[in-house]
Amino acid sequence: MLEFSDKHYLGSSLRFGLPREQTKLKTSGPYRFSRNPIYLGLYLIIFAAALALNLWWAWAIAILNFIVYHRIIQAEESFLAEKFGDPYRDYCQSVRRYL
């Protein structure tokens, strides 16, 4: 059985929406390369689907998804900056939003 360490993944911190309970800032594992690896993966899937279909409406949906998720990310980043303060701002200086 494959086991994952909380050191490299979100572990029990994985949730949808903004957390109300106490959490720790995760900066290891895939978060060393991207502040939003889950959204980045989603973007790549949406882009690949639009590219494969190559239909105007698929590209329109892809663009709409990029805009919506980018706004969600901006709201999450504001929340994280308020919650974690300088450690999060330092992390933002050293790791890009997407890649």
Write the layout of secondary structure elements.
Blueprint: H1 37-53, H2 56-84, H3 86-94
Helix pairs in contact: 1-2
Describe the overall structure.
Helix content is 56%, strand content 0%. The protein is mainly α and 99 residues long. It has a domain at 26-94. The longest helix has 29 residues, at 56-84. The two termini are 31 Å apart.
Number of helices: 3
Low-confidence stretches: none
Nearest-angstrom radius of gyration? 16 Å
Number of strands: 0
Could you tell me how far the N terminus lies from the C terminus, measured between alpha carbons in angstroms? 31 Å
Task: Sum up the overall morphology in one term.
Answer: elongated
Strand % is: under 5%
- Class by SSE composition: mainly alpha
Can you summarize the main beta sheet?
A: none
SSE order, as H and E?
HHH
Helix content: 55-70%
Mean pLDDT over the residues: 87
What's the quick description here?
With 99 residues, the protein is mainly α. It has helices at residues 37-53, 56-84, 86-94. The longest helix has 29 residues, at 56-84.
Task: Give short descriptive properties of this protein.
99 residues; mainly alpha; 56% helix; elongated
